[in-house]
Design brief:
Layout: H1 26-42, E1 44-47, H2 55-82, E2 124-128, H3 134-144, E3 155-158, H4 171-174, H5 181-186, E4 210-214, H6 216-224, E5 227-233, E6 241-247, E7 251-257, H7 268-274, E8 286-290, H8 303-312, H9 322-337, H10 343-360, E9 361-362, H11 399-404, H12 407-422, H13 439-445, H14 447-454, H15 458-463, H16 474-481, H17 492-495, H18 497-502, H19 505-518, H20 537-551
Parallel strand pairs: 1-8, 1-9, 2-4, 2-7, 3-4, 7-8
Antiparallel strand pairs: 5-6
Helix pairs in contact: 1-2, 7-8, 9-10
């Protein structure tokens, strides 16, 4: 379909796509092909490539190639109607007579082309992402999508007004705002004009080149701008119409990013997939979830996307209905919460769940082989060093007793969880009332221990009295962090910084390591970069003070 030589499968043999400024890896091109096939067979699925393998670029490549397919289908239909010889007539054998266009998929006029087996999918495209990622997605669009490709005419509309508050946003950038009148008008479908209003609106031909970038917090308000009263399909009486609210937004493809975060059916971003406006259109959208970890603690992680596929697909596969997944999840929950492992039951659960993974999910990691290649992507050269730290005997034994002082917080959380279970409807997901908190929840509620494991001396400051006492809360650290200039060093963190650092094996290693990397270049001859990840503002604040001492400037 991409006109690639199947013998040239090395990592450096990238794929050029007209409409993209960035060449993509062959595994990404294969993922695009798999999505196009799976969309038409099942109605959607989940792309679960590991972090760092370019899922955002993969989605942009997917909608660009779908746009190519739509343009080619319309060219073929026009040529066949005119019988001008530019394309093969329906059923005519042979190769497409028109010259090959660089970066375009094979023409669907030829029955030997895979694209001939794929019907065009009209309608707008949607990416519903977490609020914090809207800017990142927009940046990826501007980096990778070639909007100057006139035949494709790719456009983005951003439904997130706060994005345009940046003073560095240009006039050209502002034309992408979902609040502009031009975008509001051009995104509207072609309305049905019959006197009785009983008919389907139709997407315009250029709509499959439009991407709506939105979030769950803004989408509902945005969608209401496109609604009006009229006749809609009666969901309970096939073929009949009733009074209701029509929508002139018609989506052909819709995706939710980080689908593992809100995976219950009819919740969060998954609910947006389920409730896409289809009540006055014949177009049924392909729906997709993107996630590096589609499920972790429970197989229910695919529920939201699977439910949306079932609701949007004209003929969902009966072997993969939500009720079957729900049964698997309940059996899994029962086994997890029992005191005895039953290997036969576990085997049954895994065997029942595996077909869902094989059918709906594609997942690759950096270690996945590509036709014998040792990895999917070309890794930059790097140096790896293992660091082993000794325990801090002075404080480590004291921390568990300190943590026990806050057991009431966990008891209260368990009571809330049990009350929620007690008030759940009869269709509750689990038959076992929770008696303990889950592992992840316990980790989150034991945040003091996690901070003290890195900076044990903070234990002393948390137990002292007077001005040097610390609550170790996030609010406290944020208030210190907002202090001006040297006043940050007048906080307990700053006054006792030497003791905090010297009692921390991690920080002492870092204290010695930073000057080393400042004197070195990386393998490519560039300045070294140090990235530190932490979930705690308290830790970040200490590290900021340390870096100020080392570098005499904010780090």
């Amino acid at each position: 379909m991409f006109r690639r030589d199947p013998k040239k499968i090395d990592i450096d043999n990238l794929v050029t796509i007209a409409g993209l400024k960035t060449k993509i890896y062959q595994y990404q091109a294969f993922g695009v092909y798999w999505q196009m096939i799976t969309s038409r067979q099942l109605g959607g699925g989940i792309l679960a490539d590991d972090m760092g393998l370019g899922k955002t670029l993969s989605f942009l490549a997917y909608i660009v190639v779908e746009r190519q397919l739509s343009v080619l289908h319309r060219e073929v239909a026009k040529s066949r109607a005119a019988n001008d010889g530019a394309h093969l007539l329906e059923g005519q054998p042979g190769e497409c007579p028109s010259p090959y266009k660089s970066g375009w998929i094979a023409c669907p006029c030829s029955t030997t082309s895979h694209s001939s087996k794929m019907n065009l999918q009209p309608g707008l495209r949607m990416a519903c992402v977490p609020q914090g990622l809207v800017g990142q997605w927009w940046g990826q669009w501007k980096t990778h999508v070639d909007v100057t490709e006139s035949e494709l005419a790719m456009k983005i509309v951003i439904d997130h007004p706060a994005t345009f508050n940046n003073i560095n946003i240009t006039i050209t950038d502002r034309l992408s705002s979902g609040e502009t009148a031009q975008n509001m008008t051009r995104m509207q479908a072609e309305r049905y004009r019959a006197r009785n209003g009983k008919g389907d609106d139709r997407p315009k031909d250029y709509h499959d080149g439009y991407l709506l970038l939105t979030s769950k917090e803004t989408y509902s308000k945005f969608a209401k701008k496109f609604e009006n009263s009229g006749q809609i399909h009666d969901a309970k009486k096939h073929g009949e119409w009733k009074s209701g609210t029509r929508s002139c937004l018609i989506f052909g493809i819709a995706m939710i990013d980080e689908s593992h975060e809100e995976y219950f059916k009819n919740k969060g971003r998954a609910q947006i997939l389920t409730n896409l406006p289809t009540w006055n259109s014949s177009v049924r959208p392909f729906v997709w979830g993107y996630s590096g970890t589609p499920f972790s603690q429970t197989p229910r992680g695919i529920e939201g996307v699977l439910w949306a596929i079932e609701k949007q697909c004209p003929k969902p596969d009966a072997n993969f209905k939500w009720e079957k997944l729900d049964t698997i999840c309940k059996e899994y929950d029962t086994q997890i919460k029992s005191n005895k492992r039953d290997d036969e039951v576990v085997g049954h659960i895994l065997a029942a769940f595996k077909p869902f993974l094989v059918r709906f999910i594609i997942r690759r990691t950096a270690e996945t082989k590509w036709f014998g290649s040792p990895s999917l992507i070309k890794l930059n050269p790097h140096i790896h060093q293992d660091i082993y730290l000794q325990p801090n005997e002075k404080f480590d034994a004291l921390i568990p007793a300190f943590e026990a002082m806050f057991d009431s917080e966990r008891d209260s959380l368990l009571e809330q969880l049990q009350a929620k279970w007690d008030n759940f409807p009869d269709s509750r997901r689990s038959d076992i009332r929770p008696t303990t908190l889950g592992f992840n929840t316990m980790c989150r509620t034991s945040w003091r221990s996690r901070i003290l494991a890195t900076f044990p001396y903070l234990f002393k400051l948390a137990r002292t009295e007077g001005d040097g006492r610390l609550s170790l809360t996030e609010v406290e650290a944020q208030s210190f962090k907002n202090a001006i200039d040297k006043k940050e060093f007048n906080t307990p963190y700053g006054r006792y910084l030497r003791s905090i650092v010297e009692e921390s094996p991690k920080c002492m290693w870092l204290y010695n390591f930073i000057p080393q990397i400042l004197e070195q270049k990386d393998v490519a001859g560039n300045d070294q970069k140090l990235v530190i990840l932490t979930a705690f503002p308290q830790v970040a604040f200490v590290l900021k003070l340390v870096s100020c001492v080392l570098l005499c400037r904010p780090y």
